[in-house]
Every structure is written in structure tokens, then in C-alpha cells.
Description:
Blueprint: E1 2-7, H1 11-26, E2 30-31, E3 40-45, H2 50-66, E4 72-77, H3 78-83, H4 86-90, E5 96-99, H5 106-118, H6 149-153, E6 164-168, E7 170-171, H7 182-186, E8 190-191, H8 194-206, E9 211-215, H9 232-242, E10 248-251, H10 261-269, E11 273-278, H11 286-292, H12 297-310, E12 315-322, H13 329-342, E13 346-351, H14 369-392, E14 398-407, E15 410-414, E16 426-428, E17 437-445, E18 450-454, H15 468-480, H16 483-486
Parallel strand pairs: 1-2, 1-3, 3-4, 4-5, 6-9, 9-10, 10-11, 11-12, 12-13, 16-18
Antiparallel strand pairs: 7-8, 14-15, 14-17, 15-16, 17-18
Amino acid sequence: MRYHLLTLGCPKNTVDSEGMAGLLADAGYKPTQRPDRADVLIVNTCGFIGPARDESIGALRELGRRKRPHQLLIATGCLVQRAGASLQRELPEVDAILSTRRWYEIANLVAQLRQDRYGDIPAAGLTAAPDLLRANVGLVLNRDEAMPAQAIAAPVARRPVGTSAYLKIADGCSAPCAFCTIPGIKGPWRSKPLAAIVQEAEALVTQGVREIILIAQDTTAYGYDWGQRDQLAPLLDSLCASLPGDIWLRLMYAFPGRVTPRLVESMARHSQIVHYLDMPLQHGDAATLARMRRPSPSVAARNIRDLRAAMPDIAIRSGFIVGYPGETEAEFQGLLDFLAEHELDKVGVFTFCQEDGTPAGAMPDQVPQAVKEERRDRAMELQQAISLRRNRAQVGRTLDVLIEGVGDGISVGRSYRDAPEVDGMVLIQHELASGQRLPITISGAMAYDLLGQPATSDDRPPATDDSPQRVMQRRHEGHAATQPRRREGKKV
Length: 492
């Protein structure tokens, strides 16, 4: 039996898909990249904003159109939780749905569906709830129902791809942000037990992972559901004590105001923790942030100062929303002033999406789409100059770079300053083996990417039209053309 699993959306979905892949492997299923060769087609959907929903529905509809007799099509993930049974009414080609809060039931659901439809898999020994195991029925939890503990700490052998892997330390969200659909999709915040996180990290390292990226809707809220504050730092301490010294730990999705002195000290003290932090700030104007139900700019400014004081070389990434309801030109200028003052290393700018079921979706004074896009372009133009300046400051430094790809005389990798998918790359004028982490001397800088040479290499060929330098330039030109799309992802 073979399955084809398509993952859409954010890194949290990637982790859930890797968990599902492990469960299906344990049940005897083999993965295939070709849908036409699969017995089971699975789409792990995203339902965060309108464009993501459209992409997920399009993928389900296309697989459904090409579905052969005896193939099953299952929709899982966030869109399922948000749309519920109406998804199957809209897409009758979908055989079953499984919400993002019950991904760990995937193997049982597949087995029961095949047994019900075709009688080719014994149903004995199945452990899922009866209401889950009926053809054309899935399980979707209520909005306020917390994610089951098994979804947080399911004992699953993940199947990561590559030398970097995401590790989800919690799920759900209890933040009051007025624009966000995540609490309704994921439910209240649930932290994963510390021992389970350490065990999963150790298992990833044994599979060859060299970089572990800690993620959650808000990593700095770790332990809040247990009534314990400031627990991310002790978690980092435990991970650093358990993992080899050459492993990178990267921290994403920190909430402004929860970047505590204890957390900053832990990040600065441990060599495994890269000097990088993703801290979505959403805006730079106090009035806009108040309507968003987010912390004030002064809170973010304090966090930035504390991080840079403890780690002068830290790379700080953030995301901002433009065109929020009621955003005036003066408020937008407040965002531009914030960007100019604090000069963050990496920034994504996103236009506001009006979402049903959120307070912001019902607010008056919605901003026209053309104004949103014009403001996004102005903010990105300002930030590109800042990013270029910050990148040029790296020229002459020797940075450890994790090599991820090679070809045409060029290697592509990431330094500590670059998270996968959302940040830039280091382009190196030599072919180096993937999976290594090597010292690279930075020789050039662009708005998003850096150029480098192996720190020990003195044999630099002349710059002719066919030289690696020219190949690197052509490669970057093609890469740069994709930058706006790469940086306008679905989740800030």
C-alpha cells in the first residue's frame, strides 16, 4: 500500500505531516511522490487566510478530479478544522476529513476506510473513536476544546527530510490578537512535556539533523497552560544539556514582551543556540497595535535593545501587517519610522486579510486593497535598503554555513542569520558536500543573500563569463526574482 501526502501551509503543518508519515510507515504504508501510484491521497491543508484556503481547496479538487477507482482522498489539517463537514459538501470527491487536532488518528482512519469500502484491511485492533471511523466522516473538535494530549506528545517516529527539522514545542493559541483565526482552528494553548521535547530532539539528531528549529504559535508562552511563566529558558537549558555541542538550535515565533531577561541570558550563554530570533511584531504604531490587541511599540523596542545588548551579532526577524482596518497614513508612517529606527535584519510585510469570525474582520474602515499593496511596497522598499546595509556589515566575517545544495560550481547554504524558507542564503563559489557545516568567509552582499568563499580556499578562478562568479550571478538573478513571493508567506 502506498500513500501520497501533500503538505500546505506553515512549519507546524510540516511537523504534523512528518508525524503522519511515521504512523503510516508503522502501519506498513510506503510514500510516493506520484499521486497516480498511491492507494491513499492525503492533503494536509492550511486554513489561515483566504489565499491559503483557496490553495488547499484547489489541491483537493485537482486530486479529486484525477482520483482513480479504489483510491481514497483524505483532507486533514487546519482547513478541515475551520470548515468542518461543509468541506465535504463542497468537495464530494473527498472521502474523509480529519482535523488538525486529530492528525494522530490518520493510520486508523485509513485502515477503517479501506475496510469499509473494499474489505481489504482487517478492522481488528483499531483504536480510534467510533465516530471517526465511518466512511465520509471525520472528527472536528469544537472551537474552545483543547487539543488532546496525544496530539501534543504522540510517540511518533518522525521522518524528517534534510539536515534541518522543525520541532513543535506546543500547539494551539490563547492570545487575544484581533486579526487571527488560529485560536479557532487550533484551540487553546497546550505545551508539550519537556521530556517529550528532549526525546524528540535526540531522535532527530540520530537521524542526521544538524539544526533543530523550535516552533509554536508563540514559543515564549511555553508552560503558560501549566500556570508557569518564563519556562522557555529552562527548556533551552535542558535541550543544550542533552544535545551535542555542534547542533544548532533556532528559536522562532517569540511574542514581544515575553522575551524575558532569563530567556535572553540563556540564548547568549549556550553555544548551540544561534544568535537569531523571529519575533512577529505586526506593526510599529501604538494606535494600530492597540486595535490589534498587541503589545505597544515600546515593549518591542525594549526587547530589541535587550537582545542586542546581550548578543551584538544577533539577527532579528519580524513580520508586519499593513492595511489593518483604520490604518491612516500617519499610522503607516509610524510603522516606517519604527523600521527605520530599529533596523531589523529580516522583515516580511503582509497585507491585511479580512477574515470572518475575527474581531478585525468586522471592524469598520477597511482599507482598500490597492492602498494595502502600495503600503506594502513602500515598506519593503525601505526595508530592502536596511537589509542590504545589515548584510554588507557581514562582508569580511567568517560564518559557519550549513550546506544544503550544490550544482554548477556553486553551493547554497545558510548561516546562523538565516532560517529555512523565509530568509536568504549564502551562495558559495565552490562545490561542497551537502550536510556539512563549514566556515565561509563572506565576500559580497545583496539585499537578501550573501556571497562567500570557503575560509581555507585560496584558489579563486578568474571572473570570466563562464566562471563560477558569473554562474553565481545568474543563479542569484533567478533566485532574486522569487524573493517577493517567498517573503509573502501565509503565516507571519
